[in-house]
Amino acid sequence: MKILIADDSRVMRQIVTRTLRQAGFDGHDLVEAADGAEAVEKANAEKPDLIISDWNMPELTGIDVLRKLRAAGNDVKFGFVTSECTEEMKSAAESAGSAFFIVKPFTAEQFDEVLTPILG
Amino acid sequence: MSVETVVTEDDLAEMVEQVWVSYLDPEGVSPLVVSGDDKQATEVHSTVSITGTWHGHLVYACSLVAAKKSAAAFLAMEADEVSQEDISDVLGELANIVGGNVKAMLPAGCFLSLPTVVLAPDTASYYPAAARISGLYGTWDGEPVSISMWQSVKQEASA
């Protein structure tokens, strides 16, 4: 599977990558995007099977990325890994078609629980 | 808005504990030890601002040694291998994580800014329209670390 990790923090992209490995999801093809606009661009160019996205990013927020992809007919599996978690955000994410919502700080166990049904 | 709705020192301690357990001290051997010393000197800090129904700032400050240790833990490197960019990124992420968790406890309709990082003591930044309303001050392996919350004075006065 190809996974796109979108986060403006280089550190957090590395931590997501490491946590995926710690959760047992080795061997996937990982692609990174450093802001929302790059996430849309890579989603179209790289055609990932899953996008793991931050919410608060420059250029386009994560929810804007998701809405833009869905509006263009792209049904890629998409979920958020973000430090922000309010009911309004969760509800907006769900309505836009998000598959999961992981809150930072997170553990490998949480990744395992949420991503196993998706990544197998 | 009343001060009661604002995040307390205990709330900050709970968030910080999660950060330590997840990233900085997964083995549980060197937690942040709360000292309450709000005069402790720091060398670097990062800030996220919250706007909307609540206005203010969340400031994460620490010594350079603590910042290097944090970067090393986040990036799975040795402390003497981390670059200034690593330190800045990790400090920004720490403010972002705690700020995001703080936001979840505030009334609906708040917005979190992207973090800013200053490689200078927290006293180098001024928040002229805000007053400190709570803070968690402690040490991590003897190194100072603090998380403080600042609320817009104007907003507090109109509560």
Describe the structure.
The complex is a heterodimer of chains A (120) and B (159). By secondary structure, chain A is an alpha/beta fold. Chain A has one domain (2-119): Rossmann fold (3-Layer(aba) Sandwich), CATH 3.40.50.2300. In chain A, 47% of the residues lie in helices and 20% in strands. Chain A has helices at residues 10-22, 36-46, 62-71, 87-96, 108-119; strands at 2-6, 29-33, 50-53, 77-82, 100-103. In chain A, strands 2-1-3-4-5 form a five-stranded parallel sheet, with helices on both faces. In chain A, helix 2 (36-46) runs parallel beside helix 3. The mean pLDDT of chain A is 94. By secondary structure, chain B is α+β, with helices and mostly antiparallel strands. In chain B, 33% of the residues lie in helices and 28% in strands. Chain B contains four helices and seven strands. Chain B has helices at residues 9-24, 64-75, 84-103, 153-157; strands spanning 33-34, 44-52, 56-62, 110-112, 116-118, 130-140, 143-152. In chain B, strands 1, 2, 3, 4, 5, 6 and 7 form a seven-stranded antiparallel sheet that branches. In chain B, strand 2 and strand 3 (56-62) form a beta hairpin. The radius of gyration of chain B is 15 Å and the shape is globular. The termini of chain B are close together. In chain B, 43% of the residues are buried. The chains are: A alpha/beta (120), B alpha+beta (159). The interface between A and B is medium-sized, with 22 and 27 residues.
